[in-house]
TrEMBL record:
<dbReference type="Pfam" id="PF03466">
    <property type="entry name" value="LysR_substrate"/>
</dbReference>
<dbReference type="Pfam" id="PF00126">
    <property type="entry name" value="HTH_1"/>
</dbReference>
<protein>
    <submittedName>
        <fullName>LysR family transcriptional regulator</fullName>
    </submittedName>
</protein>
<keyword id="KW-0805">Transcription regulation</keyword>
<keyword id="KW-0804">Transcription</keyword>
<dbReference type="InterPro" id="IPR000847">
    <property type="entry name" value="LysR_HTH_N"/>
</dbReference>
<feature type="domain" description="HTH lysR-type">
    <location>
        <begin position="12"/>
        <end position="69"/>
    </location>
</feature>
<keyword id="KW-0238">DNA-binding</keyword>
<dbReference type="InterPro" id="IPR005119">
    <property type="entry name" value="LysR_subst-bd"/>
</dbReference>
<dbReference type="GO" id="GO:0003700">
    <property type="term" value="F:DNA-binding transcription factor activity"/>
</dbReference>
<dbReference type="GO" id="GO:0000976">
    <property type="term" value="F:transcription cis-regulatory region binding"/>
</dbReference>
<dbReference type="InterPro" id="IPR036390">
    <property type="entry name" value="WH_DNA-bd_sf"/>
</dbReference>
<comment type="similarity">
    <text>Belongs to the LysR transcriptional regulatory family.</text>
</comment>
<dbReference type="InterPro" id="IPR036388">
    <property type="entry name" value="WH-like_DNA-bd_sf"/>
</dbReference>
Length: 300
C-alpha cells in the first residue's frame, strides 16, 4: 500500500515497512520469512527496495547476525508507533460499531476487592451502552497489557511504577484496614491490638504496599505475629480466614459481606493503616469513550 509523503514527495510502501518491522522484531530474515510465510529471497528484495526508497541502510551484519543501524533504530521506533496505532484504530472501530456497543476491557490485580470491580462495572453501564470484560492477574503483566492497549483501564492497590509519561493514574479510594478472623478468635477483640501477639496471620505478599505498611505497624507497636501464609488474592485470604487458618488484615470493604453473614468477625481496626486503590490508563490517539469517562470521574 504505497503512501505519498507530502513534504518530501516520496512514496512509502507500508507493506515493505511491515516486513522491515517484522525482521527487526524477529532478529533475522529467516525467522521473519517463516512468520510472514513468504520466501527469504522475496523478503530480502523487498527490504532492499525499502532501503533504496529511504536512501539509508537499515541493517548491518555483524558476526552473522543482523543489527539495526542508527537509521534502522529510528525507522523501527516510527514503525512501532504506526502499527500500534493501526491496531488501536481497528480495535476502536470494532468496539464502537459492533451492535452500537462500546467494549471496555478492565484489568484488575487479584488483591483489588471485588466490590470495587462491581462498582466500576455498574458505573461503566451507567455511562452508556457497553459491554465489559474483566481480566485479573499480576501487576507487571497487566501493566504491559495496558501499555500495549490490550486493556483500557487498570485497577491496582498501589500506584503503577512506570518510567513513561504514557501511563497515568489516580487514587480512587482509601480503605480502612481491619483484622478479621473466624469466630474462634473473637476473644482477641479484648486488648486489641496487643492481643495479636504470637497469633497466626495470612498476609499479603512482600511486594505490596499494604504488606510494608503492616510490617511497619507491627514493628512500631512491638507486636510479633506468626506469618503462616502469604497471598495477594483477597478471595483466598477470606477463605483461609473463614476456615480458621489465621487472622487476615483486609480492607473493611473487602470483608463486609462475610462480616454481615457472620462468617468473619472484626477483631479491630489497624489505626493509621489504609489501602489505596488506584485507577490507571494509557495515552491513546483514539480514546475509548466509556473508559475515558471512568478515568475522569469514577471514585468511591
Amino acid at each position: 500500500m504505497p503512501v505519498k509523503v507530502a513534504n518530501q514527495m516520496q512514496w512509502l510502501n507500508y507493506h515493505h515497512l511491515h516486513y522491515f518491522y517484522t525482521i527487526a522484531k524477529e532478529g533475522s530474515i529467516a525467522k521473519a520469512a517463516e512468520k510472514l510465510k513468504i520466501g527469504q529471497p522475496s523478503l530480502s528484495t523487498q527490504l532492499r527496495q525499502l532501503e533504496e526508497s529511504l536512501g539509508k541502510d537499515l541493517f548491518e551484519r555483524r558476526k552473522q547476525r543482523l543489527h539495526l543501524t542508527e537509521a534502522g533504530k529510528l525507522a523501527y521506533e516510527y514503525a512501532d508507533q504506526v502499527f500500534h496505532l493501526g491496531a488501536e484504530m481497528v480495535e476502536a472501530l470494532h468496539d464502537r460499531l459492533q451492535n452500537n456497543r462500546v467494549h471496555v476491557q478492565i484489568g484488575a490485580l487479584d488483591s483489588v476487592p471485588k466490590h470495587i470491580l462491581l462498582e466500576i462495572i455498574l458505573q461503566a453501564h451507567h455511562q452508556g451502552n457497553c459491554s465489559v470484560s474483566v481480566v485479573e492477574g499480576g501487576g507487571s503483566e497487566l501493566l504491559r497489557e495496558l501499555s500495549a492497549h490490550q486493556i483500557d483501564l487498570l485497577l491496582a492497590n498501589y500506584p503503577p511504577n512506570v518510567d513513561t509519561k504514557s501511563i497515568y493514574a489516580r487514587p480512587i479510594a482509601k480503605l480502612d484496614v481491619v483484622v478479621c478472623a473466624s469466630a474462634k478468635y473473637k476473644h482477641l477483640k479484648k486488648g486489641f491490638p496487643q492481643s495479636l501477639e504470637g497469633q497466626p496471620f495470612v498476609f499479603p505478599t512482600v511486594h505490596s504496599k499494604l504488606r510494608r505498611d503492616l510490617d511497619h505497624y507491627f514493628k512500631v507497636n512491638g507486636i510479633r505475629v506468626d506469618r503462616i501464609a502469604e497471598t495477594q488474592d483477597t478471595s483466598l485470604q477470606k477463605l483461609l480466614g473463614q476456615e480458621g487458618v489465621g487472622l487476615i488484615p483486609i480492607s473493611l470493604m473487602a470483608a463486609d459481606e462475610l462480616i454481615k453473614e457472620k462468617k468473619l468477625v472484626v477483631l479491630g481496626t489497624l489505626k493509621g493503616v489504609s489501602e489505596e486503590i488506584w485507577l490507571a490508563a494509557a495515552d491513546r490517539k483514539i480514546n475509548n469513550p466509556i473508559a475515558a469517562k471512568l478515568m475522569k470521574g469514577f471514585s468511591l
